[in-house]
Design brief:
Length: 394
């Protein structure tokens, strides 16, 4: 690693920074290469990160489920953290995506009140901020939170307020992605798309389609996505996780997805892979979750490194912090240990996360400028040398 280039130079080397970020060229000027630095979990923890694919109902604190169940008189399969962790397959490999999704029945049972939704969103953003996630997109389907009579608007407001509270406390930027559900009536997806349009510019950053992929094609929900696109709302779509590349093609060509959730099986179709690369369509990769749902056998066989080396815009995300028992820091560490991503690779992935944020271009560029500086500062700190000259002017 003696001739290892600066992480910042990796960022600059990416093909289309000027076009997609609008970063002024002065801010993108190459920095002198620092000496090599060892990748450690402490370093990964300190680096500024995004989490663009994170489900609210899969990312509660275990203690909060127990606390809310007691408050709301909800029966759980276990009354202690250990038993509850087992019941939700926390960090365990599941039989299938459907088996994995069954854990959400438990978490959803305590997310049926405004107070519960506020607390879950607030704590999730605090937990993300604590590992230096600077930008978080929290996704969930409001239609799954009306079992006790809450209005959809109340479900949205409670989560947005939880995120706003976390921002006041930690300055983390956070927004919401509203999910339609594949295995629900497409009319429900359309109602949720209307909600996403109504809350555009009020904290909702985009729309998604989640749920069981096999047997529930994305094109069935085309009307919802058409409404989203007609209203210039950003959208992503879970695809290529439990089904093949045809599912990704549908997400892109029928539903107009701007990003792909997972895309694990994209490697099976080289032509589509090139299309995704050529159009700089970001992949929201979630390594541990893919092992847990058996989308891949183990981390080492995940295509993340192949996608990265090929030039695709890849981001690393948690999917479900509780159910998968993970953090972005942990996912990056796994990418380093099992897939051989270097510090330079990881910094490029981090920057790709910020580039892929569902934010207005100018806001994204401002954020990227700060983040590029911070990456240099953090790496310099781990070298125990003076920060780069550009960082001193911050
Ligand atoms: Zn997901």
């Amino acid at each position: 690693m003696s001739d290892h280039p600066s992480p910042l130079s990796a960022v600059i080397a990416e093909d289309d920074d000027a076009a997609t970020t609008g970063i002024p060229s002065a801010a993108r000027r190459a920095q002198p290469p620092p000496p090599p630095v060892e990748v450690t979990e402490a370093l990964l923890h300190a680096l500024p990160k995004t989490d663009l694919h994170c489900h609210l109902d899969g990312s509660l604190r275990i203690g909060t489920i127990l606390e809310l169940a007691e408050q709301d008189k909800v029966d759980l399969p276990a009354g202690d953290p250990e038993g509850l962790s087992r019941a939700i397959h926390m960090g365990q490999v599941c039989e299938s995506l459907e088996d994995y999704l069954s854990a959400f029945d438990i978490t959803l049972s305590v997310l049926q009140t405004e107070a519960g939704l506020f607390q879950a969103a607030h704590e999730l953003a605090l937990d993300a901020a604590a590992e230096n996630v600077r930008y978080l997109e929290v996704r969930y389907s409001p239609a799954l939170h009306v079992q006790r009579g809450l209005k959809l608007t109340a479900v949205i407001e409670a989560v947005l307020e939880g995120l706003r509270e976390a921002k006041r406390e930690t300055r983390i930027k956070a927004g919401v992605i509203i999910c339609g559900i594949r295995n629900q009536d497409p009319q429900t997806s359309l109602r949720l798309a209307e909600l996403a349009v109504a809350y555009k510019n009020k904290g909702v950053k985009g729309f998604d389609l989640a749920g069981a992929e096999y047997n529930f094609p994305a094109k069935d929900h085309k009307a919802a996505f058409q409404l989203i696109l007609n209203n210039n709302v950003n959208c992503t779509c879970h695809a290529g996780e439990a089904y093949g590349p045809e599912s990704i093609a549908q997400a892109l060509h029928y539903n107009g997805a701007h990003r792909i959730g997972h895309g694990t099986r994209l490697r099976e179709d080289g032509d589509l892979l090139n299309y995704v690369n050529d159009h700089r369509i970001p992949l929201e990769v979630c390594l541990s979750s893919n092992v847990q749902t058996r989308a891949v056998r183990d981390i080492a066989s995940h295509p993340l490194k192949f996608y990265f080396d090929y030039g695709l815009r890849v981001t690393v995300n948690t999917d479900n912090r509780l159910i998968t028992d993970t953090t972005v820091t942990k996912e990056l560490w796994l990418a380093h240990r099992h897939l051989g991503l270097s510090l330079e690779d990881i910094c490029t992935v981090l920057v790709s996360g910020f580039k892929s944020a569902f934010l207005p271009s100018r806001e994204r560029a401002d954020l990227l400028e700060v983040v590029n500086r911070e990456i240099s500062e953090v790496v310099a700190r781990f070298h125990q040398v003076e920060p780069l000259s550009a960082a001193r002017t911050a």
